[in-house]
Design brief:
The protein is mainly alpha-helical and about 190 residues long. It contains 8 helices and 3 strands. The chain has a 3-stranded antiparallel sheet, with no helix packed on it. A hairpin with a 5-residue loop joins strand 1 (about 160) and strand 2.
């Protein structure tokens, strides 16, 4: 979220509100998170309702805690809305959804896809990028999706890569050359840790 906001030259005030929203958007899901994360069966209608209400409840909890930053609260409320109206809680469409909420939605979707669950393995970065690309212009903002994918890059920090010398490394940073990230080797070609 921060990478996109910086790339768009968003003011610090808006960035801080957006990042605050990013850190608190799923606040109302905390009591259910572990149970849902470990659940192997499909969601019940009651669970789906809890999920669909969590942006409203998160906003209410933040207000109860004294948060009065309107932008922060609006982004929390809108972070699961989709351009085609299929999102929740208010089925907003297109320009009804704040740009900052659309940016947060991309980061939230990406994070969910690359995180493994008991009922499915994590989706590999390359496939996640493909799926996001395919949703651009439909559910997701086309320009923001392309910017998100560009900023995320082929090798985003945190993913593992196999080097030409057969070492396993983790990407720890970016370089000007998108195909040559900054890495830290963690496993030697013989399988031993460094």
């Amino acid at each position: 979220t921060e990478l996109i906001l910086r790339k768009l030259k968003v003011s610090q005030e808006v960035r801080l509100s957006t990042l605050s929203a990013a850190l608190t958007a799923n606040l109302a899901m905390n009591p259910y998170q572990e149970r849902l994360h470990n659940q192997k069966s499909p969601l019940t209608s009651q669970q789906r309702e809890v999920i669909n209400r969590h942006p409203i409840q998160a906003k209410q909890k933040l207000e109860a805690l004294g948060i009065d930053d309107k932008l922060w609260l609006e982004i929390v409320l809108q972070h699961h809305e989709k351009l085609d109206g299929s999102g929740y809680p208010n089925q907003l469409k297109h320009q009804e959804i704040r740009r900052e909420a659309r940016i947060l939605a991309l980061a939230d979707i990406y994070s969910a896809m690359v995180t493994s669950r008991p009922y499915r393995q994590n989706i590999q970065h390359k496939e996640t990028m493909r799926q996001l690309f395919m949703q651009r212009g439909g559910k997701l903002d086309e320009k923001l999706t392309l910017l998100f994918l560009s900023e995320l890059g082929i090798y985003p920090p945190g993913i593992f890569v196999r080097l030409n010398n057969r070492e396993l490394a983790v990407v720890i940073g970016r370089t000007p050359e998108h195909k040559a990230p900054l890495v830290a080797s963690i496993i030697k070609p013989d399988g031993q840790f460094f």
